Amino acid sequence: MGMAVVGMIAGMALGFAGYFGGFGAFLLVAALGAVGLAVGRFVEGDYELGDFFRQRDGRRDRR
Question: pTM of the predicted model, to two decimals?
């Protein structure tokens, strides 16, 4: 399944949630979709756990 088809299905799901459930349902479906995307990318190996929890060295970029 191509990314265009996946995007179309996600858009349709958001559209149905917004139409039948209102704006709150739209936001809930969008947030859960983003979480599902992150978990899916993690399972596929695109992300590593260290990508989410990096240590900061204390330096800040000052301009």
Answer: 0.61
